[in-house]
Amino acid sequence: MRLNPKITEKIAFAFLFLSTLVIVVPVILITIELLKNGMSVMSWKFLTESPRMGMRAGGIFPAIVGTVYLIVLTILFALPVGILAAIYLSEYARDHWLSKIIDVAIVNLAGVPSVVYGLFGLGIFVTFLNFGTSIVAGALTLSIMSLPVIITSSREALGTIPESFRESSLALGATRWQTIRRIVIPNALPGIITGAILALSRAAGETAPILFTVAAFYLPHLPKTIFDQCMALPYHLYVLATQVPNVKAGVEYGTALVLVAMILILNLMAGAIRSHFRKKKQW
Amino acid sequence: MEVKFSRPAHHRWIEFAVEKAIFGAGIISIIFVALIFLFLLKEGLVLFRHYPFTNFFFGIQWSPISEPPRLGIVPLILGSLAVTLGAVVMAVPLGVCAAIYIAEIAPGWLKDILKGTVEFLAAIPSIVLGFIGLVTLVPMVKNIFHIPTGLTAFSGSIMLAFMAMPTIVSMMEDSLRAVPRAYREGALALGATRWQTIYRVLIPAASSGILAAVMLGIGRVIGETMAVMMITGNSARLPTTLLEPVRTMTATIAAEMGEAVQGSTHYSSLFAIGIVLFIITFLINLTASAFIKRRK
Q1: What is the pTM of this model?
Q2: CATH topology (fold) of A62-280
Q3: Option in A82, A116, A173 nearest B5 (CB)
Q4: pLDDT tens by residue, B123-177
Q5: What secondary structure, in 3-state letters, does B53-73 show?
Q6: What is the pLDDT of residue B1?
Q7: Looking at chain B, which residue has its C-alpha nearest residue A183?
Q8: Which of A178, A235, B6, B64 sits between 20 and 30 A of A186, alpha carbons compared?
Q9: How far away is chain A from the Cα of B52, in angstroms, using its nearest Cα?
């Protein structure tokens, strides 16, 4: 017997809808769980005090500061290189073997497991260059990991600039670099910044790359230079959840909530910049 | 905007320097891929001076601190394989179905909510998902199957399937969007229902995109570290069922590097696992990008 196509369609759509629910509902449940349990410990003290009693009480201030240090340094290292690389790919590179190899390299760089980045950072920055377990080693590791994201998004942003902009500038006698600096980059900047913020928000949540390059189990004081170790939110959560017995669940949830909130704020910022400039765009 | 018509000599010099810097940055991704591989080799290959190659790749026992150490990675590879296969079996059908619903069927307002939720899932760090899995999913698996511990390959698979979802959904959505409008309209004009159009026209047309989504999903899953380490129980034995603790390659590196003495056999064996992982993900990503190219 053949089913009526209309009925088949109804069944199929219902099934597809259910599959979507299987993905979406847990996300909502996780959010509620995080908010409900995390808010119970949330207070000004939790955000601004050091951990106490073997990290079972007190706040998470050093971990927040550490994560901020790490992402600021990461963007300082990764953004200039990432933008220049994107400029090369979008403005200079011709479609030949080299740009094909670069494409393959970017895809693979994006696919290298985060723990392998950790090994690489340990091998090159901590050991070979002798930075030791330090903020700079961790930030360099994270910035290499962020590069493919920054390059890809900046390249897309540069690609949306109409060719006529470049041609008009060149026709007026500007050099190629002047054109890029005065015309192309300013117009692509919102897109570039959006991509950079998204890359940062990813780097902020990563644990495996900082595991052997920077993260300190517990530090009673804040780092003084970039050659010190520091605590970091994701690693702190890992330590609380697996290494310290009898932690109150609230402290763990609180740490997770702060981390997710930080990442969410970065994502919302990126979204706001994108939509603000999309409205202003005249072309 | 001021544009000077004369070009002083220093401008030409700046231009030259800048273009060299841009070229340098352009090839930096190649340099880093090469450097990563080189440093893994440098630290990892030392192992085979003291430890036979075949024992590493075919040994079925991983006990690095026993005397003498046994560094067979078969249990770790099987651990990764079990968790990955489990995750892919769950994630691919669900992800593809959800992508079809979001891209083709959901009304505008619902589409935005669903897309937003999936993007939010992508933004949650793996350590947070690992922690949530540890406190919610693990006890659930334990109670449902009446097993002594919920820290199993199966729990890891569920978590990883969940984590691979955003990758699969967004890749799949892109592929559906890349199908020419005329295909869709043609099918509908011939009297096909929307479902018939999706099933007979869109899915076949987007098939290489589906394969790319699967490959990228596998790449994401096999490289995942923190959540897997927290949920799968970390026992480096040969798994016989999915309801047993296993240990993946990634988790082994992350869990043991802290204790390994620098330059020891144990240390270099962890880098050697890194080499294996790097090569596997390299091949997976190469395949994925080949599928993506074909889509275009």
Answers
A1: 0.89
A2: MetI-like fold (1.10.3720)
A3: A173
A4: 999 999 999 999 999 888 888 888 888 888 899 999 999 999 999 998 888 888 8
A5: HHHHHHCCCEECCCCCCEECC
A6: 53
A7: B1
A8: B6
A9: 22
How many Cβ atoms sit within 10 Å of the Cβ of residue A164?
A: 10
Q: Predicted confidence band at B3 (pLDDT cuts at 50, 70, 90)?
A: low
Domain that holds residue B234: 58-295
pLDDT in tens, B222-252: 989 999 999 988 777 777 777 888 899 999 9
∠ CA B154-B159-B160 to the nearest 5 degrees? 95
- Report the residue from B1, B14, B165 with minimal CB separation from A23: B165
Token duo for residue B192: 């096909």
Q: Is residue B178 part of a domain?
A: yes
**Tokens standing for B275?**
């080499």
Q: How far apart are CA A200 and CA A203, in angstroms?
A: 5
- Residue A235 CA to residue A214 CA, distance in Å, equals 10
Q: At a CB cut-off of 8 Å and minimum separation 6, what does A173 contact?
A: B3, B4, B5
* Closest approach of A60 to chain B, Cα-based (Å): 16
Render pLDDT for A120-144 as a digit per residue (tens, 0 to 9): 999 999 989 988 888 899 999 999 9
pLDDT score of A215:
78
Q: Is residue B266 part of a domain?
A: yes
Alpha carbon B5 to its chain centroid, in Å, reads 52
Chain A nearest C-alpha distance from B94 (Å): 6
Strand, coil or helix: B14: helix
Give per-residue burial for B124-159: e unless 16+ CB within 10 Å, then b.
Answer: bbbbbbbbbbbeebbeebbeeeeeeebbbbbbbbbb
Tell whether B94 lies on the interface with A, counting CB pairs under 8 A.
yes
Give the number of domains in chain B: 1
At B7, is the pLDDT very low, low, confident or very high (cuts 50, 70, 90)?
low
Q: Do A120 and B3 touch (CB under 8 A)?
A: no
Structure tokens at B15: 């231009």
Residue B79: strand, helix, or coil:
helix
CA separation for the pair A191, A175 (Å, rounded): 24
Nearest residue to B163 (alpha-carbon basis) of B191, B138, B135, B126: B126
Rounded alpha-carbon distances, angstroms, from residue B103 to A25, B144, B172: 18, 35, 9
Stretches in chain A below the pLDDT threshold 50: none
Instruction: Please report, for chain A, the start and end positions of each structural domain, with discontinuous segments joined by +.
Output: 62-280
Q: Is residue B162 part of a domain?
A: yes
Q: Confirm if A214 and A229 have CB atoms less than 8 A apart.
A: yes
Contact between chains at A119 and B270 (C-beta distance less than 8 A) = yes
DSSP character string of B215-231: HHHHHHHHH--HHHHHH
> Does the pLDDT of residue B4 top 60, yes or no?
no
